[in-house]
Specification:
15 helices, globular, 12% strand, TIM Barrel, binds flavin mononucleotide, Bacteriocin As-48, Chain A, alpha/beta, eight-stranded parallel beta sheet
Length: 325
């Protein structure tokens, strides 16, 4: 996820068993072949075997609209070591769509086909090409055509975020629509959108009929969500809610990894960004966020995350306990 899930986050989220694979932030392709440093920056795992430190495979994602440019860049990424290349046809960002990238291609399935097949031809059979779509741009009428276009173009897997571009991130995600697509495709279809907890996971699977799901914001809100799902699948047991001390430890580890290369101020805002994702579903994270949001010094922020007294003070200050959204 662009600006949110980098190699350090992938590392932290995959330390406990849960994820089968992860994806990089998109590499934006305009017209030229990008230099290797761009790929290494988005995907430091290219220096190794395209796995996280705990061994979970990493897919490299490209976003663009020009088939020829996507093809040369995919070729480049494959030469650098990417074994799976994903094409992003789901990004709803205005800037990206204005420049004819991301979900804007869903207005014409032929363009999805052209992009996927150009990349598929360029990388050859050694490298897998996958795709990610939404249900459409402003309506769902072309959802199946776009999905089929990706399959016919050579995609070996399709992730479907169950909303149109115009629906943005507004609930609900229409998981049943993923099922309508899945029934007409021969490649694996992965359900995505609004999976925040175990119950959502099961509902998304049931309504879509998909065996696999992709987690986005839910994995930031509860960093143990993938593990929770895996544990339940393996044992039938429900793990307890992720305690604050585990969350604080993950945020502290995140800071330690990020501060090796970034300034304290930047790391401080990255921690707050993650805390912001957590607070939407967790009352303690909400309390910490409110207490710490104006702090700009990293060590003070970390002390506040790990300080148990902080919570007591904040509970008193706010009066009542906020409920998770
Ligand atoms: C801040 C942000 C950045 C994102 N960046 C990407 C991206 O780079 N590539 C991508 O395929 N999807 C990206 N997404 C979309 C998510 O992968 C996912 O499809 C979407 O958030 C719906 O799933 P969720 O409800 O589980 O978050 C991004 C979403 C957010 C909120």
């Amino acid at each position: 996820m662009e600006g949110v899930i980098d190699a350090h986050t992938r590392d932290l989220l995959t330390r406990r068993p849960g994820f089968d694979w992860t994806v990089t932030e998109f590499v934006r392709v305009v017209d030229a072949r990008l230099p290797p440093r761009v790929y290494y920056r988005h995907c430091p795992e290219l220096h190794g075997r395209m796995i996280t430190p705990s061994g979970v495979p990493v897919t490299l994602q490209l976003l663009g609209s020009d088939p020829a440019a996507l093809a040369v860049n995919a070729e480049q990424a494959a030469a650098l070591g990417a074994g799976v290349i994903d094409l992003n046809f789901g990004c709803p960002a205005k800037l990206v769509n204005r420049h004819d990238g991301g979900a804007s291609l869903l207005r014409d399935p032929r363009r999805v086909h052209a992009a996927v097949s150009a990349v598929h031809k360029a990388v050859g059979s050694e490298t897998k090409v996958t795709a990610k779509i939404r249900l459409g741009f402003s309506h769902r009428r072309l959802a199946l055509d776009c999905a089929k276009a990706a399959e016919d173009g050579g995609a070996s897997q399709l992730v479907v975020h169950a909303r149109t571009r115009d629906e943005g991130y507004r609930p609900p995600a229409h998981w049943e629509w993923i099922g309508r697509i899945r029934r007409h495709l021969n490649i694996p279809v992965v359900a995505n959108g609004d999976i925040w907890c175990l119950e959502d996971y099961w509902k998304a699977r049931t309504l879509s009929g998909c065996r696999d799901v992709m987690l986005g914001r839910g994995a930031l809100a509860d960093p143990l969500l993938a593990h929770r799902i895996r544990h339940w699948l393996n044992t039938g047991e429900h793990l307890p809610p992720t305690p604050w001390r585990v969350r604080a430890a993950i945020l502290s580890d995140f800071a330690a990894l990020q501060r090796t290369t970034l300034s304290g101020r930047l790391v401080t805002s990255l921690i707050k960004q993650w805390l912001n994702h957590m607070r939407k579903r967790n009352a303690e994270a909400e309390r910490r966020f409110q207490a710490l949001k104006r702090i700009n010094e990293l060590d003070t922020l970390l002390a506040g995350l790990n300080d148990e007294r902080e919570t007591a003070l904040e509970t008193t200050a706010h009066g009542s306990e906020p409920t998770p959204a």
